[in-house]
Protein: NADH-dependent flavin oxidoreductase
Organism: Weissella muntiaci
Amino acid sequence: MTEHNFLQPYTFQSGVTVANRIVMAPLTQEMGNADGTVSPSELRWYRLHSGDAGMIITGSSNVSELGKGFEGEFGVWDDRFIPGLRDAASAIKSRGSKAILQIFDAGRISSTKILRGHDIVSASEIAAPREGYETPRALSGEEVLQTIKNFGEATRRAIEAGWDGVEIHGANTYLIQQFFSPNSNQRTDEWGGDLERRMHFPLAVINEVKSVIAKYATRPFIMGYRISPEEVEEPGITLADAHALVEKLKDEPLDYLSISLGYAWRTSLRDENDKELILNKFVNQVGDAFPIFVAGQIITPADADRALNDGATFAVMGLESIREPHWVKKVINNDEDSIRYEFSLADAEELGIEPPFLTFLLRGFRKALRVSTDPKIDANVYQNMAAPYESTKRSREYLGN
Ligand SMILES: Cc1cc2nc3c(=O)[nH]c(=O)nc-3n(C[C@H](O)[C@H](O)[C@H](O)COP(=O)(O)O)c2cc1C
């Protein structure tokens, strides 16, 4: 068998052991039912992927009714979702992968259409600086407390439904990041203001999830956190802000910190003179406190090796796990030559990609998806460039459509 460190098992602080250090990235598929319940298409998708990556993280799943950001995403905001969530956890675990539910609230990255006429909510009454986004209503103090509780309730449901853990989605411009950002949070109460106060919301969510796990979990249960280390907007989250938050996270029983990047070897977007890899900065900061997950164009076994050599403990793979659900098996079987690095439209059905997901992929990620019949493109589409899910400034040029 080929020697790759990413094929080694790993045991998290909570006691959960994964078979390898490849993670299927959280991927919104829009294939669920309109009411937020799990659909047969999703079960098929997750069964197809089980037993390859050691850990599979679901697409973002909304903890509040008004926190829905995409059609067809999992809802976790009511006990009635528990049966479907149980089926989804079983599908992911069917061939041995660990099942992690990504819990989030979209905040202002939604629409009155997605919310069926209900209010879009956020930290402040400021629209996302993207074309076509509506102005949200600022959550009241009471609603902020309820939203924090919703993250805890979603965690309780995940425990009850047999998941191996939750990932708190503090990245990609959604509500937790909206509270952390000086751009979207201009509140004057205890949830806004200087850096210290803008950390209150993310830390309160972590605290709530932590106490729910302590209260309800009777088996090892993972708590992970995903962060976007910078925003390109002015004002916006700086690397110094992100380091300050991570410093606080070091005091928490986190099983991992996942850094969301469009390119794993990217340097600062805000400071072109800063040549140190963002990954290295956070690896150096956290030391042994918890393992680092990194995502961003990890495609080949050599890329995963490189991410681990650069200090990440886990390699998170998004588009490549869509193109190749049997990537880990092929590496283990010394069959790397058969790994698919391009996406053929003719393979969509075999890959479990049904129309809503296919449309979502082709609309938002066509260039990075590498469609085999498209003209060849630069392999490093997001190198030192904010990817669509990272920034409120989407670049049509980089979407390729
Ligand atoms: C179709 C698609 C859906 C995504 N959905 C989510 C999501 O629900 N939650 C999340 O944190 N990131 C999401 N992302 C970002 C990925 O998790 C990952 O960080 C990103 O794709 C970079 O990794 P890659 O270059 O290996 O694809 C999504 C990305 C894509 C392409």
Observations:
- Confidence is low (pLDDT under 50) at residues 395-401.
- Residues 25-28, 59-60, 102, 169, 171-172, 226, 260, 295-298, 317-320, 361, 365, 389 surround flavin mononucleotide (CB under 6 Å).
- The chain has 13 helices and 13 strands.
- The two ends are 41 Å apart (CA to CA).
